[in-house]
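Researcher: Structure prediction, please.
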Amino acid sequence: MFDQFSYGYLGFKIKDGVVYYLTGGPIYKDGIRVKGLDKISMGAPKGLEHLHLVTYNISEKKYKDLGPVFYEDGTFPTYVNSIALGEDNDVYTIARFRHNGKEVDDLVKIKILDKVKQD
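Model: Predicted structure follows.
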């Protein structure tokens, strides 16, 4: 619909009746949404989005957006293309980030502790 990408995220995982989903969300600066390009090549991003972790408890029919995901240094994951859950319910994904002055793709962990409990 109004997202900044010409493709959708397809990665989700169901565990213990809860759907875990990673998706993009708009970025706001000084209360104004950061707008991307109007026209792009197929498959190319229109602009940056924050990564959000969303859960949906199937039996309780409860949706919860846990908000944007940030690295410890304040930057955020880009070009995310997968999702996996650990036994501890932490989320693992492949994402792009800067490391030693280079942009790399690698496995990252999103520590969620008890945030996914649908209160």
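Model: The CA atoms of residues 71 and 111 lie 11 Å apart.
Researcher: Thanks, that helps.
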